[in-house]
Amino acid sequence: GQCVLVCPTGALGERDETDRAIDYICDPDLVTVVQFAPAVRVAFGEEFGMPPGTNVEGHIATACRKLGFDVVLDTNFAADVVIMEEGAELLGRLKAGRRPTFTSCCPAWIDFAEIHYPEILPLLSSTRSPQQVLSAIAKTWLPGKLGVAPDRIRVISVMPCVAKKEEATRPQLARDGRPDTDLVLTTREFARLLRREGIDLKTLEPSGFDSPFLREYSGAGAIFGTTGGVMEAALRTVYAIVNGRELEQIELTQLRGFEGIREARVDLGGQVGEVRVAMVHGLGDTRALVDSVLAGRADYDFIEVMACPGGCVDGGGSLRSKKAYLPLAQKRRETIYAVDRAARVRQSHNNPQVQALYRDFLGAPNSELAHQLLHTSYEDRRRELKHTVKEIWDDITMST
Ligand code: SF4
What are the φ and ψ backbone dihedral angles of 125, each rounded to 5 degrees? Predict the structure, then answer.
């Protein structure tokens, strides 16, 4: 992009990740694509003194453009694609009697499962997270649409989450040796970048997204940011696939709440019938739930896991509520549900741009190409679990 930024100098001391963002923007050979997560738009305004829960989606788009990013995309679009993939996968597993299926969009949960419960990895959905789905599309489909070589694209994502940084570097998610997501900035870092460049979010005029292909999202994609949202989004789509018509009572209020573990029964009709689902957030409750599943004390078809209490609206990369379930998370989540209520399209499968992506590029959900680009695998990392004082000590002494 055209670089109007205050460029980093050594005098500023240690380089941080925001410097890398500026390097990308200032490199005339690169095309920068920025994406931001469902939860960011309802938590970011607080960094600039706006009331908790203000939806600053349009302000963020303007800020990105002012910074000089070339293409501003919305991770909500990819959340809809995740539902297409995960929904099809879930249905296949239900029909085959494989249960339960765990969601896979929270990388801190994936790390936790790989290190503490590798025996459950076959139960995890293989669908990549929205961040990685959007990055994969940005590196494979978008270049043709934009008329630029794929190796000139750099994807920067703004996430409420520290674990997304590590996710971006997973070898399973690299393409030709390069990561699909080149840089992850937390919400806090993105705020720092704006302040450094003298941009005050509050004073900006909201604007829309650039890409005519990847900017629409459904209400289902929007609610990914809060605990229970992925479950609700998935069930809206699975119901429609099974029954050939939409769920009448679209807001699955029985899935909403802030209790650490919530469970519900939902009648999906047709060949599938009633399913038992659970939603858990916070790693303490996650451990309790996984232990129950492994011990045969819990019987579910589908389980949503979010490592942060409250889900991404109170994620570890954003300004946090002092105590889980308290005002900030509540306000942010109310806004997310309001976005869903106001959305023109409320189911992922009805997002016209998602339909176009499948028609023009991917074929069908879970197609061979979709598998190659939008799914992943997991690794037993139990060896990283430290059991003894000696192991911990060896680790410390080896790394110093
Ligand atoms: Fe990241 Fe927390 Fe959201 Fe998981 S729940 S994706 S760790 S912000």
Answer: -60, 145
Closest ligand 1 atom to the C-alpha of 109? 4
pLDDT of residue 323: 53
Q: How far is CA 372 from CA 146, 304, 356, 376, in A?
A: 22, 24, 19, 8
| Nearest-CA residue for atom 4 of ligand 1 | 106
Ligand 1 proximity of 312 Cβ (cutoff 6 Å): yes
CA distance 367 to 2: 38
- Omega before 100 within 30 of 0, i.e. cis: yes
Query: Rounded to whole angstroms, how far apart are CA atoms 133 and 118?
Result: 24
38 lines ligand 1 (CB under 6 A): no
Residue 230 Cβ inside 6 Å of ligand 1? The answer reads no
Testing ligand 1's pocket by substitution, the residue of 283, 308, 332 carrying the most ligand atoms inside 8 A of its CB is 308
Which of 42, 3, 37, 43 is CA-nearest to residue 23?
3
CA of 312 to the centre of ligand 1 (A): 5
Domain ranges of the chain: 10-376+384-398
Q: What is the ipTM of this complex?
A: 0.99
Least confident of 40-49, 110-119, 243-252, 324-333: 324-333
Amino acid letter, 365:
P
Fold classification of 10-376+384-398 is Rossmann fold (3.40.50)
- Say which residue, 327 or 187, is predicted with more confidence: 187
By C-alpha distance, which of 354, 342, 252 is closest to 57?
342
